[in-house]
Amino acid sequence: MSHWQKILAASLTSPAQLGQRFGIDSEPLAAVCRRYPMRINPYYLGLITGPHDPLWRQAVPDPRELTDTVCLEDPLDEENLSPVPNLVHKYPDRALFLVASQCAMYCRFCTRKRKVGTAQMAVSDETIRAGLDYIRKTPAIRDVLVSGGDPLLLSDERLAWLLGALRAIPSVEIIRIGTRVPCTLPMRVTTRLAALLKRFHPLYVNTHFNHPAELTAEAARACSRLADAGIPLGCQTVLLRGVNDAPLVIRRLMHGLLRMRVKPYYLFQADMSRGTDHLRTKVETGIEILRSLIGHTSGLAVPTLALDAPGGGGKIPLLPEYISQMGQRLEFVNYRGVPCSYLNGG
Ligand SMILES: *Cc1c(COP(=O)(O)O)cnc(C)c1O
Ligand code: SF4
After folding, report:
1. Is the distance from CB of 99 to CB of 148 less than 8 angstroms?
2. What are the backbone dihedrals phi and psi of residue 112, each rounded to the nearest 5 degrees, phi first?
3. Cis link prior to 202 (omega < 30° from 0)?
4. Which residue of 54, 121, 179, 324 pairs with 211 in a disulfide if CB–CB is 3.0 to 4.6 A?
5. Whose CA is nearest to atom 7 of ligand 2?
6. Using 50, 70 and 90 to split pLDDT, how confident is the model at 73?
């Protein structure tokens, strides 16, 4: 076993272990863990300062996961949009390819909570081959998002095989890896892994940080290794109640990401994934957070705020209103609230 695999193997997976460590009554969490698995590896556990801090809320089960009557099993209708198992083809020119069933930590707010880390998420050589076949015979797909689960939990050998097979498809222009590993298990990003990924350019990595406390020296080293391998890095952050639903927290996170050479890509309204209702925020909160960034800090620090519409509608961008009147003379209110105007062209 490699170093990172040993760390992963020492994860907390039972509420009793959690109870011992934090002196809490873990009994109510046992039923939650039977339905939705828990995995908190020693690295991420070490960042949790105590019950209900922003990292705790992301990692530790909550009894409310079992009483959510608002949200949906499959909020993005992914199963119906999969022509073959584990390949979601929703948009014309790109596809989402689920190649791993496990993660370095099971996030309580996961959009694929229905299956990630459970037997429901069956990824095998067979499903991967079927996905590759589908991509091969669908040349409209020019961008493949490799996700899961977390693809970087696959072994180096398996990743090399998979990425090699994707790269061999002439219509695949871009490969994107969606991974939370730089945040939740940064020691997985070895120099060997970075050298391996570099062989499959143009390859992008979109990672996932939600709170400034996750921007550790280890995470910075992981991002550095990837960036030094010429991999453009993006971040998809999810707005979560009691975790990061405040302008100053998001601003610190965005600035910290940029210092690690990670470009904030999306800021998501949490999906309506069953078992996560207690973590969702109001859409208005996200729009106010975005308003607090636009103009007040560099454009590089401003992600696209979006919600992914239930039923497979896709991502809908959300923007604060700046246009106060359209027409030959357009009227605006700028980021400071000052009125401005512009004479239309054309
Ligand atoms: C989010 C998503 C994509 C990628 O969308 P981008 O806006 O290109 O990042 C592709 N397919 C599916 C099914 C998705 O959910
Ligand atoms: S890393 Fe991503 S896929 Fe895995 S549990 Fe977290 S949100 Fe879900």
Report:
1. yes
2. -105, 35
3. yes
4. 54
5. 110
6. very high
Closest C-alpha among 303, 292, 299, 297 to residue 269 = 303
Contacts of 231 (CB under 8 A, 6+ apart): 194, 197, 198, 201, 203, 204, 205
Q: Which residue type, as a one-letter code, is found at position 246?
A: A
> What is the predicted pLDDT for the residue at 325?
96
Whose tokens are 């280890």? That residue is 218
CA-closest residue to ligand 1 atom 8: 94
What single-letter amino acid sits at 60?
V
Q: Return d(Cα 320, Cα 309) in angstroms, integer.
A: 18
pLDDT confidence of residue 262? 99
Task: Read off the tokens for 276.
Answer: 């996560």
CA-closest candidate to residue 296, choices 327, 254, 342, 331: 254
Ligand that lies nearest to the alpha carbon of residue 185, given by its number in the listed order: 2
Q: What is the pLDDT of residues 112-166, one digit of tens each?
A: 999 999 999 999 999 999 999 999 999 999 999 999 999 999 999 999 999 999 9
Please state whether the predicted TM-score (pTM) of the whole model is above 0.70.
yes
Domains of the chain, with CATH numbers? Answer: 62-320 (3.20.20.70)
